[in-house]
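Anyone up for a design puzzle?
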């Protein structure tokens, strides 16, 4: 199945690239439910862009769509790999483009839905060629980070990146261990700084005509929604889910289990933290994560920020976008 090519304008300048609607926004903003309604209204199919929902068995902590919701509208890239598999933005780009190509061939509209900004950008604009993943290097860096944590120096790797590539360090949050290690890996493998590779690439691999929507309920409302969602995850059995995963051999050292919620339940399973204490940490870390998501989204060119309550506005945005596509 071929991937759409970026050169798709007619001589008159008309953009003939196939359309994609992105529904993003900070965690707990209401992306899944609104995307479901929009997909039903516009003959759509949903392509998951949440880096945790790709994993089988990680259901409660990822707020994965229910089987009933998936029966209402086709969902893609949910439950596609086991938790012990390393899945990254490069693999997502391949899988998401294949899914969206198939949706277009069926005459339907892809809705790319989720809060993992790097996954969305990879699907829409491509990725820099930093070489294949070097798992040995990553494991070594993760061990170095663990040692730094034990020595009370959690930002050691980020300072190392700052010395090698100050521009990349400015763009990567000091607590974003995964992206910090990837930037160091690119330097180690290619001898080039990640920021220079990004500058050369400029993320110009754009095979789709895109409408980008970010849901924004407001800061205070979002805090309330986050705290409520975290409590609901506990009530719906997040701790039991992590215990069951542990019995199946899915340990806390796996990358999939470092996600918010799952990493907070690990010490409760081990008996070193109380459930109430883990809940407070989970709520705090989710609020911080939502702030980082907002920061990422503010840099997206042409994005439309919409209150999730403004459903008519959302429908009109999609309707106008499709009218322009058809004209």
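Challenge accepted. My sequence:
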């Amino acid at each position: 199945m071929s991937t759409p090519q970026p050169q798709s304008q007619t001589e008159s300048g008309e953009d003939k690239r196939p359309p994609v609607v992105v529904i993003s926004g900070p965690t707990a903003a209401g992306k899944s439910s609104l995307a479901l309604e929009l997909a039903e209204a516009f003959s759509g199919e949903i392509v998951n862009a949440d880096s945790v929902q790709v994993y089988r068995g990680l259901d409660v902590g990822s707020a994965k769509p229910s089987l009933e919701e998936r029966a209402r509208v086709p969902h893609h890239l949910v439950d596609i790999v086991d938790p012990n598999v390393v899945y990254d933005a490069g693999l997502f780009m391949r899988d998401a483009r294949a899914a969206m190509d198939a949706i277009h061939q069926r005459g339907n509209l892809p809705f790319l839905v989720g809060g993992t900004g790097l996954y969305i950008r990879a699907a829409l604009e491509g990725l820099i060629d930093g070489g294949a993943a070097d798992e040995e290097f990553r494991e070594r860096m993760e061990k170095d980070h663990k040692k730094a944590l034990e020595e009370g120096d959690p930002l050691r790797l980020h300072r190392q990146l700052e010395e090698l590539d100050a521009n990349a360090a400015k763009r990567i949050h000091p607590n974003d261990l995964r992206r910090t290690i990837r930037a160091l890996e690119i330097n180690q493998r290619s001898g080039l700084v990640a920021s220079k590779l990004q500058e050369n690439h400029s993320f110009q691999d754009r095979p789709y005509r895109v409408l980008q929507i970010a849901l924004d309920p407001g800061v205070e409302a979002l805090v309330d929604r986050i705290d409520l969602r975290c409590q609901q995850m506990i009530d719906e059995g997040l701790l039991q889910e992590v215990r069951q995963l542990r019995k199946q051999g899915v340990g806390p050292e796996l990358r999939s289990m470092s996600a918010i919620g799952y990493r907070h339940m690990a010490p409760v399973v081990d008996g070193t933290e109380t459930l109430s204490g883990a809940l407070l940490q989970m709520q705090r870390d989710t609020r911080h994560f939502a702030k980082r998501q907002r920061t990422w989204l503010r840099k997206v060119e042409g994005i439309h920020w919409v209150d999730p309550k403004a459903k008519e506005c959302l429908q009109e945005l999609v309707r106008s976008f499709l009218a322009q596509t058809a004209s």
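A detail worth pointing out: Residues 1-7 have pLDDT under 50 and may be disordered.
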